[in-house]
Protein 1
Amino acid sequence: MTISTPVPSRGLTEEQAAARQKIYDMPLDELNPGDPGSFETQEMWWKFERLREQDPVHFTSEEYSDHGNYWSLTKWEDIVAADTDHDTFSATAGIALPDQRAMARAVASANFNSRAVTADATAVEDAPRGPAPAITSLLSMDPPDHDIHRGAVADGVSPSTLRELEPIIRERAGAILDGLPIGEQFDWVDLVSKELTAMTLATLFDYPQEKRRQLTWWSDVVTMIPGPDQPVKSFEEKDEIMAEFRDTLVSLFQDRVSKEPKGDFISLLAHSPHAGEFTLGELIGDGIVLLVGGNDTTRNTITGSVYALNKWPEQFDKLRENPALIPSMVSETVRWQTPLTHMMRVATKDVELGGKTIHEGDRVVLWFVSGNRDDAKVENPNEYIIDRRNPRQHLSFGFGIHRCLGNRLAELQLRIIWEEMLKRFPEITVVGEPVFSYSNFVKGYESMQVIIPRRN
Amino acid sequence: MVDVTFGFHDGTERTVEAEVGWKLMEVAVNESIPGIYGDCGGEAQCATCHVHVRPDWRAATGERTPAEEAMLKAAYDVKDCSRLACQIIVSEELNGLSVEVVDN
């Protein structure tokens, strides 16, 4: 059953009310917020609503989950407390709540632990064969390693880099928008959201523009749960595609290390003063995370902005009347969309939170998607209000040392595309409902049909 | 409540009321002062609240913490008067504080 839309506080359809009731009637300990299916059907809203009220720090046993035992933090306050205490809540257990089947396939990482860059810093070794272990990257490291890796790549999105990128992004946005069909239905995700994001990613990695969709595809596969209804049918197939991705990344590193340092992420990593200490697994992992970080997140927020403005047409009117509200609308969309639903941590010691005792070694999920709808912190959180008082007040980028590195770039892309859209199109109308992604991590849109009736 | 003033690159300024005990960064974010983001939530982990303290307020705001030094190493347009606004706590003594927002 598909619930058609994340429900504002305006009133539910009969179907939605029934789904909500079912969640409230369940025994509390059976509530499994990590179930990817509930994100596809949009039922997760009811789970989080109930948990925030009745069991904000909630334990899900492996008996009720495909993800093993895990804790869920559902309120803003607890999420921020955990996110800013990286000593107690370590990132090293992995970025996101993994499917058990994926966990079972992860092999010992020995063959990815060799030093990647040769001593004379002129070459990077080839990737070994076989399935890879769980990704090791800056996002799943604690200090001091984390700080070294993050320091190596931060310049890739420095203020001056962004200033240089702005006109390039604007030109591309204009070209994409000018190429859109008028008066004819099309998939916004494919023609706009994916396109602009892919172009930016290719630039950040200095990857050939004409092959940019490869980057998008590989990125998507990283977070995809294989299945008969999915673009990737099996874990075997996923492994093969990931191997191709890894080999490409390694060849990029090999290319950059042999040349003069440049400003793209790969070159920054390859030429980092610490590159001699990085393992191949870490180099690959950093590359993957930086790519994935800017892939579906920005894409889904672009789509989300069009969707939300259609669901709240008075907000769209407000925006058209006052384009100075674009930056504020962008922040509100990032909050409302929450493109990554959570990040995961592991407790390094026993800790009390929300009246519960989390034990050392327990995995703890920080549900940004729930915290962003916590009315203890955000007023009317389920309403999309583009000029709310503190639109930047949201959890979508995280907090603390792992705070999203690309957040300013995401906001830049969103601002530019909207500036260009408002110049060109008086209306962009969503047709029907989008297809929501099957994932407990990526909160997104597989496709969304729209019509642009006419140009300005 | 005390008054604090944020100056900008273009010469304009904005004076806002600030609660004693708040971090200066929090005041700025709450008032949507452009250029101050507080990405890391005030933990001296991101340098997106970088300000230049005006000369007559240097003494009252005191010296940088070691954490600030570390973050400012990788920041832009760092001067002697550079501070992270998340490490400046609003107090009665800072009534009238004036800082310039660094173009982040």
Protein 2
Amino acid sequence: MLDDIAIRVRQNVGIVTAVLLFSILYLLYNLSHPKGFSSAVLVQNGDEIFALAMLAMAQTVPVLASGLDLSVGAVMTMVGCFASYLLTGAAGGTPLHLDIFGLHVGLGTFPGGVSGILLGIVICLATGALAGFINGCVVVYGRIQPIIATLATGAVYIGIALFLRPTPGGKIDEDLNWALTNSLGDFAATVHIFDDGAASWFAPVAWIPVPFVLLILIALLVWVPFRRSVIGRAVYAVGSAEGAAYMSGLPIDRAKIAAFTLAGFFAGCGGLFLAIQTSSGNADIPQAGAYTLNSIASVVIGGTSLLGGTGSAIGSIFGAMILRVISFFFRIFDIAPLLQPLFEGLILLAAVSIGALGVLRVKNTLELFR
Amino acid sequence: MSDAVLTQSAFLTLSGISKRYAGVRALEGVDFACERGKIHAVLGENGAGKSTLIKIIAGVVQPDAGTIRLGGSDVSFATPSAANAAGVVCIFQELSLMPDLSVADNISIASPPRRFGLIDARAQRRRAEQLLAEIGCEDVNPLMRVRDLPLSRRQVVEIAKALGKKPQLLILDEATSALTSADVEKVYAMLARLKAEGVAILYISHRMHEVEALADRASVFRNGRHIETFDKGKRSTADIVQLMIGRDIATQYPPKPAREVPKPVLDIENLSWDRHLDRISLRVGAGEIVGLGGLDGQGQKSLLLALFGVLRGVSGKVTIEGREVRPGSPAAAKSVGIALVPEDRKTEGLMLPMSIADNLVIASLDAISTGPLVDRARENEMIKRAIARLQIKIGAPGDAVSTLSGGNQQKVVLAKWLMTDPRIILLNDPTRGIDVGTKQELYRLMRELADQGAAILFYSTDYDELIGCCDRVAIMYDGRIVRELQGDDLTETNIIASALNIDAATPGAVGAAHA
């Protein structure tokens, strides 16, 4: 039994390190923040972490199958632009139309109200998953290396986003924005449940920020079942040794498509939240690129090997949180914004180096190359 | 042998199977059959078509012509999983394990036990424990990652994985080549059990004594053709070898020259490392081939790696021609004249996608460059010489080294190191999974190198080979050298006794123990 625990810890050193590092950094942050350990700080942090955490999860799945997805930021941006049309919540619905090649095509009226918002959310998430599915098909059936395939499709998705929102704009239902970007208490008050959040049993959890709850729900309801499904394990198997996976009779093509589709879904979740949080759609190309690169950094800090086969989306969530906490420190210590990339880079380098410390303990140098 | 009888009771029948790869014939009009409840050995040199035959039966490649009947109906398998579904399971020489997944994951990879649609980790673990117990290897923890297991344990996992698929026809392709002797016994017992249950077993091995011990019937292949099938005991080993290579072989091993005590080239004193090497002292003289024997995993590989500068924290003294050396890396070891033919030629020996030429010169680039540039003329000259010297069978030097057969790949590894003119050659089981013909060429080459003054340290899991090739054999047990055997003492009995660390120096000792 003890053996088993020792084995499990040894196999998850990366994730354990990331969790510890985050805990230490976040504790220090709260200690040095004037309003540390308060619900308000937590809510603000949650809002800032959510989108990157989702993109980190998104990036993890293709990386596990040993392929990078350079389109996650683009998918996020595109879904955000869709959301800015579909989640207005306007009482009479939103009229949609398409202006293309000088033509003006009316697309009818998208329903408003609560049912319209729910439908809009479903469509946004489905769009993300579809974008990922297309990535997967290009990689599998086009036999194109993932990094190039997603570079190309990513440009297409950004193009669609620009077409939808040449300039930032659109609108998101205010209640939706309020309900999802604050604490559970505010959520309950907005959607009128649990006596508008005043129920006495509800008080002990009312301080928890909604983004954290969403993050945990998505991890538990999407990631954990995926990890334990046959197709999920096939993704790990493909990343570990594709030839062996084939010889073992695993559905390799389906595994890869599933990996990219899930990545698209997670990236869609991130885009949806970002749109809700900012109450607008914005085809921001630099932002999409920055999110993609940060998602890769998060995956590495979270203990997932870029070679594939080992790691977990849970680790990547912590990787994303570590990246964000680093930038929180800048606000507290009032460091010149222009220096921020420099410090971020140095700290990223240090964080990744911790993961490489194991190298010093290796007695058989051949193991370094396995 | 009568074909009529065979086809009546046969479980698997191939008729007129042919296969070509890019115009090169791999199999030509092969008729072949095997029965339930029999172990059927398939023999032949590398390149004889055995691998292609197996791949066709297991659904990895499709034949160009011919039919396959299994259990009375025509079949054609498009994928390995289709073959598995029909009860045809193959244990491949190239391990089909996913290194980052756990042992339990690997064993149940194709159809894991499920609860509510998700993989049931506990049931999966129980299943792994059960299957490992069936082949007597309970010591493997199913939670371990395959990456962290030694090669011999990985092969055990591979076998357990195949067993879990409930085979009707089980194919073993060199499946015991990396196993320890103790495990081999367990695998034999398992095969006997499967045979009694009526499973048809196809067994491919280059170890003749294994074939003799196990097979009920054997088929010999040569140059893509089925040469002959015969029952156990109908042919002598010499006959079989001749059928395989189609020519006479005078002696399997080159003669050992008698010579004075040679001047020591490599002198090892009190070498220790971690828990794996314990005060090793050994001398290898110029022109000597010294064998490392014993059970697998007693520190032989670590000793070679320690000498080659791969291990950290090695204590003790290593002297080469009187000068103390302490190589801290393979590059440093190379510069003092040490060469190592590593355990796994596919990962440590070769860069598979690179060309034969690039692989050959990769260790001696200094010798063929002027300043930062490689001298192409000298490079080509050296490549040509190396290929001729080792008689490597290649298409063109520019072909990827992965296109070569196993034996020729191993020759490339050896040729690469010979180009560096090493004084000391370390060989880590260089004949694993290599055909008889190439093995003999390697033996001859080793002796030739020794005669030219090289000191050779040769680890092999094959006792026959140690006896035939080596001037002296050091037997290791638990990280120590327990005995050195030479001359008339160099017998299989002595090697096995020392390997098990029981004292059988005098025949009386064993008798006394029994009395």
Protein 3
Amino acid sequence: MNRATLDLWVGVFVAIGLGSLLFLALKVGNLSFAASGETYQLQAKFDNIGGLKARAAVKSAGVVVGRVAQIHLDPEAFVAVVTMNVDNRYKFPRDTFATINTSGLLGEQYIGFDVGGDTENLKDGDTVKKTQSAVVLEKLISQFMFDKAAGDTGDVKK
Amino acid sequence: MADNQKAKAAASQKKLRNSLASPRGPGGHGQRLAPERSLLAQALIHLGHTVTDRLWRLGFAAHFFVAVLLHSGTALRRFQLTIREIYFSGTLSIIIILVSGLFVGMVLGLQGYDTLERYGSSEALGVLVALSLVRELGPVVAALLFASRAGAAITAEIGLMKATEQISAMEMMAVNPIARVVAPRFWAGVISMPLLAALFSAMGIFGGYLVGVKLIGVDVGSFWSQMQATVDFREDVLNGVIKSFVFGILISWIAVFEGYDADPTAEGVSRATTRTVVTSSLSVLAADFILTAFMFRGL
């Protein structure tokens, strides 16, 4: 086999290999979002973040607008501080309400923004004031059970 | 004591060229046991000899690895040598990788759907297929295929070159066989392996898509979007590439070493080829466990 044919086939092989790597990066992984442009940082404090993890999505009206960058515990107030990177294209009013939601029954958790009506927008480094913690299924169930047990006092309305 | 002779032959061959410090074999341990020794003593001597021999061989392999790295200048400078080998171990492996990747992905699609369906979360099929391929199956299965297809070929080729005294002829002509024969094959394997693994994963995901979306009818939107939401580039894709890179180094190293160390007979070459496939498959699986423990459990 002469040199040009050899080079051609090796070139084809390398191109196919790199192509599949690109496919894995862009179509399978989520590199496209992480790489696209500028973000600004917001913080939010939650009493309980449930199963929220770093790199979880931040969604508004179901659209992914950012990712959770980092989660740590505030050592004084004992609340979870969640740092989020939000896409620069999206601005949210200052009275935006951050909740931790679950996609589907077994799905992963994400932060949802319910937009308020303030005229001023959140800026880089701001803290979202109004938050709602994750719903912990065990708490919900035990609450329900206790309510049931105390049903005769009239707490549970059917 | 074929092993010992071989070791000595290899050692003397090494001495011929001063590029390597001559490795020392286990030496006198190998003399067949005097008949008056008790059975226990014989067994112990045999055990000790086996262990020393293995250790010595491991050391020789490590030494050989360093020699290959030191002499890879030619392989990288005259890259045409390496390109030729990439053609043989990479390009010619495309078909087997494509077909097996497709089938593994399709089986994952069927099996994954069957299990996920029971929990009412069949939309997560894309996540299951993509994660298992990108993290584990892609690098590992591609490496096993690569070891049996390309690794065995490399061993047989180098072993035959040795058996037909081509290697010695090169040394006579002051051509360093490690630089001219071994290093290009080593680097070709290291370069081909990650590309083949990526190809395998991509093809497998396509196979999962074919079965999941086209055949069974999982929603196409949630198939891709859940996959994209869950699979992380650095955490999953890049770690898979690192894995396959490590496997490439392991397989190529074992293949060239077994070839270079083969007994220069027909039987020796066939044994070396078998050893390449067995050893490299086992070390790929063991290395996979270690890498996974570090990458995904954060040990």
Protein 4
Amino acid sequence: MAEGPFSPEEQQRFDSALAEILTHYPQDRKEAAMMPALRLLQAIKGWLPPDGLALVAQRLGTSKERAYEVATFYVMFHTEKPGKYVVDVCTNLSCSLWGAEKLLQHIERKVGLKAGESNGKYTLRETECLASCGTAPCLQINEEHHESLSPAKVDEIFSRLP
Amino acid sequence: MTEKIITKNWGQEGSHTLDGYRKNGGYQALKKALGMKPQEVLDEVKKSNLRGRGGAGFPTGAKWGFVPKDSPKPTYLAVNADESEPGTFKDRYILEYDPHLMIEGIAITAYALPRCSVAYIYIRGEFKKQAEICQRALDEAYAAGLLGKKVMGSDFSLDVWLVRGAGAYICGEETALLESLEGKKGWPRLKPPFPAVVGLFGAPTIINNVETLASVPSIIEKGAAWYAGLGTEKSGGTRLICLSGAVNRPGVYEISLKTTIRELIFDPELGQGMPDGRSVKAVIPGGSSAPVLSADEIDVALEFEALKNKGTMAGSGGVIVMDDATCMVRCLWRVARFYAEESCGQCTPCREGTPWQTRILRKIEEGRGVKGDVEQLLNVAAAIAPYPPIGLGNTICALGDAAALPTHSFVSRFRAEFDAHIEQKKCPYGDRPWGHFGGGRA
């Protein structure tokens, strides 16, 4: 793998983690490890670059097309490089009943993006129910969950981003 | 006061750790089960009237009984921790506060099933913290000999692997979950064959919800008769209800199956009533897929049979309350958008129908509706799944029904509001469609 997606250190991390993951599956079902393998790739690279997808497919004994099909089906997988902070704001029913639409507008003004847009720093998305309806409204930033939000609380969370 | 089974350890220090769990008698039920014959464990769960807490409410013991006794293949247990039905947020807290309760339930269940030595927990990708807590709990259980080879020194062995999803509501559907576990996109499978016969990797597979499995240890510990006695004739035990929307105290409550929606909303120990000056307009009783009820229909127990008799369903226990200042068209539009977003695209009626519903609803809400739009909307919904009764959908899985039922039920209960939008060429609620709390938290 001279032209792989990884540096030598990353390659080592990928190889050892993938070897452990594969012990969770029957030996003739390596391709079943697609979800954790893609998650691993994304944890290392921050997204799923094409050469990374190809490597995952090759290691799991399946096609690049299969890897791409899975990668594009799930919203948490990024087949394009996202901003440094992926901000997912829930606007589903219970959150909207607690002001999620207004909160999203506040965040849109704050980061200068409309939901669905991206720049180098932020990817802002309207997302579906995050199963936090009793503490609505809520959002996630790079998979970190924040709940019972007000505009002031959002401002504080953003101000603490490194 | 309802007896606490699932939530009994919540709020106690270290409830998510093995030490904390054992301090409260944890893993005694597994020890007891391992001294019983697997068939005796299964019989006990059958007699308890435990019904699935994921949405369908299917009797758990009967489901386990569908696994063929004499198959050359192993049996898998798949734990559905893909909690994503809008309005549902109970499994989140089981995983966070008491993961060992679920793990003990997994071990007992796997023991009761024939040839089951591997379980997969499929947890939704957004539950990062819960996945980490759960994995630590699994590691603790392995280290203590409660999982792995020779569980508690018996001849029973069990591996439990945690798999994280990546953001797809459809993977909560049991056969889509299996597809995802097999490393594929989450496209539901046609049934039959049912997963209990042909499931994961072509082998018999039981799929149970987190809360369902967390109910199992107490049944073994205290007996089926005790558990059945807590519930109603056909549904044993207590259940977790997730209360959200326009109430003073949203949250997860462990309640008796005899509790009514009105009691849930107004009891000072539970929802603590409506905000000042507001009354109930509508309640979704079982996650956003469940047909909505109007204010005069809420004296109904939050129980499978009672809600079925009202033309709706207990579903996943997600109760969403809307107050009298809330626009029903706006609510239905948002619900419809969800199903359009989450439709997997496999079946035409759902793939095409869910965005079509959304477009019509948007048009009506934005004041561009014309006469005939509501009929058109109902036609589209009926093409996905006619109603009543529930369950006649024209799609492989129940997402089609889930997308059509809100439309049928919102229109049948609140038709006048849809017509008012069209007649006035605007939303009568102006820029405040979301009711009392819709302006957000201060």
